[in-house]
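Our consortium's second objective concerns turning raw sequence data into structural hypotheses that experimental partners can test. To show how far this objective has progressed, the report includes one record in full. It was chosen at random from the queue rather than selected for favorable results. The single chain below, 285 residues long, was entered without modification.
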Amino acid sequence: MRTTPSENREEFAGLLNNIDKTSQDPNISADGPGNSNPYRQRFLFLIPILLLSLITNIITISIIAANPEPYRTHSKYADLHLTHTEPYVLLTDYSSPNTTLADTLWHSINIDSGVVALPDSFATSHNLRTAQRFPWDTSKGIYILHGFHNLHCLKIIYISLFEFREGQTQTRTWHHIAHCLDALRRQIICDADDTPRATERRVEVVSGVGQNRVCRNWGELENWAKAHTSCYRRPEKPEDETGLKRFMHCPEGSGYVVDEGYVPEEEILVGLPEESIATGLAGEV
């Protein structure tokens, strides 16, 4: 039996507007096929959409599980991403039995570029405290990047241990060493690294050898720091240059104009903060 145009319009309207046909025609049973058909069609229409959504979610989760790096959170300030993996190893050249090589590497660690000048607008947008003024652009403050600070601490701890091993006079105060040990202790606790390091039946006390960890690129952090240079350089002999003079080493293309006659309104950072503390307590520079 052919349906009339009016019947087709009525069925179409029922799908869109959920019209209760039993209220329009008392001869149609509430349990009859005329009442349930629109709901059945709607349900059958939703099934492939739900299946497609489920399959898409499964594929997405599988990709994230197989390639976690691109989905990790970037760093807050320099926008660094986890870019590569590297294995845990037993020894590197920094712990080489060739003490001349190891000593050269540890002494070559340089944290100068980690002293940066950041605009106050950057500090505000990243909820940073306003820092002491950068002399060649007073709209910027002087900051020390935390990773460079920790490298500095490791370096002076190594120097102190090397001097003790060689029977040399200690060039760093105990206060300075204790400060750095505590800073690294706090960082370890803050990181709360939960990597399970596999143990092995070996004479050496080692674990995790060959396991991989996901890392950021230190070179990218150095590049970001250099792009925000504060023209800082710590001399081999700290007494040779103090205060403002350490900020007179602007690289070519920095755009800063160094004024040797500049008189700062406040005392300019002398080295690193812990050095300033140690100076007040133990006469160390």
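The partners drew two points from this record. Residues 33-66 form the longest helix (34 residues). The helical segments are 5-17, 33-66, 99-108, 120-125, 146-165, 174-191, 218-227, 273-282. Both points have been shared with the crystallography group to help prioritize constructs.
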